[in-house]
Amino acid sequence: MDTASHRGVRRIILIGAAVLLTVAAGSCGLEHSYTGMGDGALPGDPNFTSDECVGHVICECVGGSPGEPPAEDCEESSLPSLAGATFRFTALEIGRPLPELFEEPVNEFLADDLDSLQTNILLLVETDERETHELEGVLITGEPGGAPHRVAGVPSPISMRLCGVRLETTAGAELAIPVGEGVLEPAELPLTDINLSGEIVDDGGGIISGELAAVLTGEAAAAIRAMGQPLGALLENLQSPPDLDLDGDGEYDSWRASGSFEAFRVEIAPLEESAAR
Fold first, then answer.
1. Most confident of 9-23, 64-78, 140-154
2. What CA–CA distance (Å, rounded) separates 112 from 260?
3. Contact, 264 vs 206, CB < 8 A?
């Protein structure tokens, strides 16, 4: 075969390989760099096609099922077991989808109420399977007051993954975030698919550099009043239309939510005591 023929065959092989890679990436429905915290992090995003990919883990087409990255991607953790640990949010700021004029009053309220222990948001770790890096727990609100904290709300299951000192959610929870009177009616922001990530410090004593990614559904936004109109309508009037398509009909119907947090370990009263109150 002459040189020109060799070049032609090589070109065909390279083009074929590129096409196969493109098809593979498209069949996954996700960008290769998808990590769960960026713009393609949530169900309803155009790059998202599988509910199994919810969370802050790498979702790849090659090897394992969505949401299950290769084990070598997860660093072994030398932290003591976190089973039985309770982390209380000491700081929480909400950004999207709140309009800019709401961000300051909502976050000031959260800062004051968290500081005064009037608002308690708790992350309870129930199991810590260190061999598989998997943790199970619940996200729940607590009664006002200090330690030992007592749970008061409905627990929402949350699945997590611990790689080194990095804690990341693999299946999100639901929670209504209190926002104070006079901003929203009722005075809470109900979020679903809440995914958390952060760095464990002090041998399991706290979580810092925390990030929150969640969803405000169109149904929830329609049920909340803000400035005399449904929150969803207000957001659209303020040039902040929905950016997620949860029902897959090709039209955006829900909003991304984002925020930051810190949480530190606290004592919690036995759950049976809380239930008896």
1. 140-154
2. 16
3. yes
Dist. CA 267–CA 88, nearest whole Å: 9
pLDDT in tens, 166-205: 999 999 999 999 998 889 999 999 999 999 999 999 999 9
Residue 239 — very low, low, confident or very high, per pLDDT cuts 50/70/90?
confident
Show contacts of 43-49: CB within 8 Å, 24+ apart: 43/193, 43/215, 43/244, 43/246, 44/215, 44/244, 44/245, 44/246, 44/252, 44/253, 44/254, 45/244, 45/245, 46/245
Cis, bond preceding 148 (omega within 30 deg of 0): yes
d(CA 77, CA 58) in angstroms, rounded, equals 18
Q: Which amino acid is at 41?
A: A
Q: Please give the model's pTM, rounded to 2 decimal places.
A: 0.74
Separation between Cα atoms, residue 196 and residue 259, nearest integer Å: 10
Give the position of tokens 């969640």: 214
In the chain, the largest separation of any two C-alpha atoms, in whole Å, equals 87
Three-state SS letters, 251-271: CCCEEEEEEEEEEEECCECCH
Beta-carbon count within 10 A of 41 CB: 24
pLDDT at 17: 43
Q: CA separation (Å) from 44 to 17, 56, 61, 159, 172?
A: 30, 16, 19, 20, 15
Cα separations in angstroms, 271 against 53, 117, 149, 161, 275: 32, 19, 10, 24, 6
